């Protein structure tokens, strides 16, 4: 009975203020609409890396929440502060996949009664009895503090995230209503079988609106090639030692998940000639007159435009205030060329796969 009521509660709410919720302005529910779920909750911090890494972890954790049959407390994204999930993505598609509630709403409407201060247990993955310090370091401390969480005691676990039976047995919801984990219960990079969960990450109207506005003001209705140039100093350093390894960061997205092919420095940090060559090849194939460049550092606009003069191509680069706007535009391109090692690229690749759009990678054929 209780669960039926819960479903009706959500449904009613979706109908009534979905658009406002998408804009991230309105609360997910009004008090009283959100019912406690006796099947328990999964709560954690997306505390590793920047957005690309966090998105990988988010998808694996979403699958895990469903597997252990607990409601997902959707973590805030982490920049230098917590970002409510709905600022960037819609809530409803996630809930179509699995029961979920925003972390901010969980804290406001459910925690005071059902997970009160004084009764909050944190869980750390550990093989030994290493102290479980939930809030030690950045972003762990700020993440929980911004949500108003302090921990009263801790538990160490060494159960793998694929061992669902053991999770259910060792951590039943009757005994542990809220599993608050220090890190995300997921692999990096996201496992092959979870890549398709990307379909439930649908851009908020705010991100969509801003990115579409840029497209419409600059190259409306035109065929365009989107490219991702990951070439900042941190990346140059990361790529120095890749030669010979079979698995490096997000490289399985092009090399495959069984780790047979080798990562090369050309794949990780493609030389300029490779960028000019492949972009021109794709421009000729698609007949595009527009190339859109997203980068963390150097956009190569002049070099690209000079090289594409015979094709009369115009090159755009906006350096948006939010990286998510670049991600959106790259997702819309008629063809995308990305960096196979980058999880930022991987986000775009997965989204494009969901919609059957083609992707190529620098230094890879
Ligand atoms: N706007 C914009 N920012 C980018 C671009 N490429 C990288 N960045 C920034 O750099 C960050 C890179 O970190 P991740 O998103 O985790 O992706 P990654 O390429 O796997 O990099 P590492 O995590 O550093 O290994 C992104 O989140 C952005 O903040 C880009 O094309 N455009
Ligand atoms: C989830 O838990 C509920 C309550 O224990 C149970 O009835 C239901 O079958 C479970 N669902 C799955 C998919 O395990
Ligand atoms: C407090 O925690 C214990 C064990 O973790 C749990 O059994 C109990 O239901 C919790 N009480 C409340 C009010 O959350
Ligand atoms: C782009 O195409 C749409 C529909 O095909 C049309 O409504 C719109 O006016 C076009 N925009 C421009 C700027 O040409």
TrEMBL record:
Its main location: endoplasmic reticulum. InterPro entries: GDP-Fuc_O-FucTrfase, POFUT1. It is an enzyme of class 2 (transferase). This is GDP-fucose protein O-fucosyltransferase 1. Belongs to the glycosyltransferase 65 family. The lineage of its organism: Eukaryota, Metazoa, Spiralia, Lophotrochozoa, Mollusca. Pathway: Protein modification; protein glycosylation. Keywords: Carbohydrate metabolism, Disulfide bond, Endoplasmic reticulum, Fucose metabolism, Glycoprotein, Glycosyltransferase, Notch signaling pathway, Signal, Transferase. GO terms for biological process: fucose metabolic process; Notch signaling pathway; regulation of Notch signaling pathway. GO terms for cellular component: endoplasmic reticulum. Gene3D superfamilies: 3.40.50.11340, 3.40.50.11350. It comes from Potamilus streckersoni. It is found in: Endoplasmic reticulum. Residues 1-15 form the signal peptide. Its EC number is 2.4.1.221.
């Amino acid at each position: 009975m209780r669960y039926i009521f819960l479903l009706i509660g959500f449904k009613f709410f979706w109908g009534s203020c979905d658009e406002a919720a998408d804009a991230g302005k309105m609360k997910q529910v009004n008090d009283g609409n959100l019912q406690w779920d006796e099947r328990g909750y999964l709560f954690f911090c997306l505390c590793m890396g920047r957005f690309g890494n966090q998105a990988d972890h988010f998808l694996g954790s979403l699958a895990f929440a469903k597997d252990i049959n607990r409601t997902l407390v959707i973590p805030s994204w982490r920049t230098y502060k917590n970002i409510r999930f709905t600022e960037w993505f819609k809530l409803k598609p996630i809930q179509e996949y699995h029961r979920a509630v925003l972390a901010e709403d969980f804290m406001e409407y459910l925690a005071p009664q059902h997970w009160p201060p004084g009764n909050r247990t944190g869980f750390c993955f550990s093989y030994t009895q290493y102290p479980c310090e939930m809030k030690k370091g950045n972003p762990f401390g700020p993440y929980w503090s911004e949500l108003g969480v302090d921990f009263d005691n801790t538990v160490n676990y060494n159960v793998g995230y694929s061992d669902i039976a053991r999770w259910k047995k060792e951590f039943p919801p009757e005994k542990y209503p809220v599993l608050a984990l220090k890190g995300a219960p997921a692999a990096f990079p996201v496992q092959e079988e979870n890549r398709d969960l990307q379909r439930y990450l649908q851009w908020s109207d705010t991100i969509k609106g801003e990115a579409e506005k840029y497209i419409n003001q600059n190259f409306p209705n035109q065929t365009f090639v989107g490219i991702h140039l990951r070439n900042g100093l941190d990346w140059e350093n990361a790529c120095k030692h890749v030669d010979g390894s079979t698995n490096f960061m997000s490289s399985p997205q092009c090399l495959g998940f069984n780790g047979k092919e080798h990562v090369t420095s050309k794949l990780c940090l493609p030389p300029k000639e490779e960028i000019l060559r492949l972009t021109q090849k794709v421009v000729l194939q698609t007949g595009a007159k527009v190339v859109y460049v997203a980068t963390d550092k150097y956009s190569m606009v002049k070099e690209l435009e000079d090289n594409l003069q015979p094709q009369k191509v115009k090159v755009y680069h906006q350096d948006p205030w939010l990286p998510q706007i670049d991600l959106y535009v790259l997702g819309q391109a008629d063809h995308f060329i990305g960096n196979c090692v980058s999880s930022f690229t991987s986000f775009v690749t997965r989204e494009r796969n969901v919609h059957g759009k083609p992707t190529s990678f620098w230094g890879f054929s």
